[in-house]
Design goal:
The complex is a heterodimer. Chain A is mainly β. Chain A has strands at residues 4-7, 10-13, 18-25, 31-37, 44-50, 53-57, 64-70, 73-79, 87-94, 105-106, 110-114. Chain A is built from no helices and 11 strands. The mean pLDDT of chain A is 90. The chains are: A mainly beta, B mainly beta.
Chain lengths: 115, 112
């Protein structure tokens, strides 16, 4: 495996279900991200982890719960979601630090549908 | 704060036409600038980047020049192909910080 891998690629869940999205990066990067991409809306940064610590949480509802157990893995735990949470969830990684440009490497995304 | 403004789409072009997608930015600090591309059903991937004024990023026939005086980073390609149909995102990051700021994306459709 190379790059950033996300599973599952597609997920359908009811509003009372609990599920998790998984992301794994094989690039040796020190930062990982969750983005939400909804139709006709800008790309929305949800969470940032740097060196396994959460450094940004952009007012995301508590029904989304991130977890970063190590620098290569990132999870997004989902519970009691709403239909408006249906979107493409993108994971990304980057190498950040003084003098680095910090470009992002994305996974292919997890398409979530909430019924 | 930082922001990126890019032209609204969709942009529809015939094959072999010239492409320009405009992008302007505001930033605190000295940003690096990027163009990302998203093909249907896929995540975003880096197309090209430039890290300082007057740098030109290029890849797959696409080019963009970092213009500090006009705070712009317009994407150009001399002859588009059907396979270039995708959504293009302009973005910036300030050195050493984790956050990348994206534009809203411009959808390009190239017809044969």
């Amino acid at each position: 495996e190379t790059g950033v891998t996300q599973t599952p690629r597609h997920l359908v869940m009811g509003m009372t279900n609990k599920k998790s999205l998984k992301c794994e990066q094989h690039l040796g990067h020190n930062a990982m991200y969750w983005y939400k991409q909804s139709a006709k809306k800008p790309l929305e940064l949800m969470f940032v982890y740097s060196l396994e610590e959460r450094v940004e949480n952009n007012s995301v509802p508590s029904r989304f719960s991130p977890e970063c157990p190590n620098s290569s893995h990132l999870f997004l735990h989902l519970h009691t979601l709403q239909p408006e949470d249906s979107a493409l969830y993108l994971c990304a990684s980057s190498q950040v630090g003084t003098g680095l440009t910090g470009e992002l490497f994305f996974g292919e995304g997890s398409r979530l549908t909430v019924l | 704060g930082n922001s990126v403004t890019q032209m609204e789409g969709p942009v529809t072009l015939s094959e072999e036409a010239f492409l320009t997608i405009n992008c302007t930015y505001t930033a605190t600090g000295y940003p690096s600038l990027f163009w990302y591309v998203q093909y249907p059903g896929e995540g975003l991937q880096l197309l090209l980047k430039a890290t300082k004024a007057d740098d030109k990023g290029s890849n797959k026939g696409f080019e963009a020049t970092y213009r500090k005086e006009t705070t712009s980073f317009h994407l150009e390609k001399g002859s588009v192909q059907v396979s270039d149909s995708a959504v293009y995102f302009c973005a910036l990051s300030v050195r050493g910080y984790q956050k990348v700021t994206f534009g809203t994306g411009t959808k390009l459709q190239v017809i044969p």
